[in-house]
Design brief:
The protein is built from 3 helices and 7 strands; from the N terminus they run E-H-H-E-E-E-E-E-E-H.
Amino acid sequence: MTLDMRMTRHLPAKPDEVFDAYTDAEKQKIWFTILDEQPGIVEIEVDLRVGGKQTAVWGPNRDMLFRETQTFLEIERPHRLVTESTGSSPDGQEMTTRIEITFEAAGADTLMTVVQSGFPTPEVRDFFETMSWVGAFDRIEAYLSRR
């Protein structure tokens, strides 16, 4: 049995704009910190091609950095993105999951759906469902609303 989660959010932009906000390193650097009082550290590199990688390093300071490397498995711009994601927390814990994201036109908006699978425990899955992805959606929505 694999542990997975599914989340959706309507975002105020067309699918190509949401896809680009999610995959473009310079746009990510903005939305990663858009809701923070103290921006902290954000370093992102993206090689958007099948087999390419996105590497993100972020946190409040150099001693508290999170790291994530996503390998792009499938890219169907602007409708679908599949990655294998390996992330680590400042305490050294590491986890690899599979992330599938779809971007569907919904009138003037986009319905962004995330399915992430391969969580090691229900507690980790629940954290991603209630905190990590909610925060990411909030930040992307704020970025798209302010452009």
